[in-house]
Structures are given as C-alpha cells and as structure tokens.
Write a structure and sequence with these properties.
This protein is mostly beta strands and 122 residues long. The protein contains one helix and nine strands. The chain has one domain. It has one helix at 2-15; strands at 19-24, 29-44, 50-61, 66-67, 70-71, 79-84, 87-93, 102-104, 111-121. The longest helix is centred in the N-terminal third of the chain and has 14 residues, at 2-15.
C-alpha cells in the first residue's frame, strides 16, 4: 500500500493547478511551478483574544527547489515574487503560530508547504 501512496504523491505535483513564481534566497533565484494554498492559524492577541485566520501558502515540489545547482530547504528570509493577473507581489516566508516557515506536505517529502506574508505589491 505504501508504494502505491508514494507513487501517487510523486505524481501529485504534476497534476495540481500551478503557476510560475520566482523563488529567491536573496542571492540566487529559480522560477518554479507552485500551487497556491492556505493554512488555518489560531492564535491569541495581546489581550488573550483567540483569533482564527488563514495564512497564504505555496506548495513547491522538493525536486524543483534548486538554487545555484544546490538543492535547498526553505528558510524564513527567502522570498517569492508572484505575478498574477498583471499584479506583482513579493511574499516573504514566515514562521506561523505553533510552527515553522515551512513543512513537508507528506511523509515522502515530495512537496514543501511554505507559509508567507506579503512584503511588497506593485
């Protein structure tokens, strides 16, 4: 069963709706196909009020995240430049409440789910 699931997960990045964004570590960049998603985040504000929100995510195939000929893992300082419908936005990876700036989408580590916040819009 796990072999079937592993095969299915390796195909998933190819069949999800994708668009191309520019991923950068500040020095190098790569144009990569991503799927846009979101993660629900619950946190308490400074008054202790519980807030439920959603954070924008990008799902990136692990095999495609290569900068300067080196496979990398996402980091909080990395950025994504996304042009959609004529508007360009720069998104910076960020840690989320109770978690890091990224995680794997599955146990086979086929895709990264990176959490971002917008830092510039044109």
């Amino acid at each position: 069963m796990s072999d079937i699931l592993k095969r299915a997960m390796s195909i998933l990045p190819k069949i999800l709706p994708q668009r191309t964004v520019r991923y950068s570590d500040g020095t190098y960049y790569v144009d990569v196909g991503v799927t846009v998603g979101q993660t629900r985040v619950d946190y308490a504000d400074e008054n202790g009020v519980r807030i439920k929100s959603h954070v924008r995510d990008y799902l990136i195939p692990v095999v495609d995240l290569i900068l300067n000929a080196v496979a990398i893992e996402p980091e909080e300082t990395h950025t994504i430049v996304d042009t959609n419908d004529g508007a360009t936005a720069t998104w910076t990876l960020m840690d989320i409440e109770g978690g890091e700036a990224w995680r794997y989408t599955d146990r086979y580590h086929t895709m990264y789910r990176v959490h971002v916040r917008t830092t510039a819009e044109e």
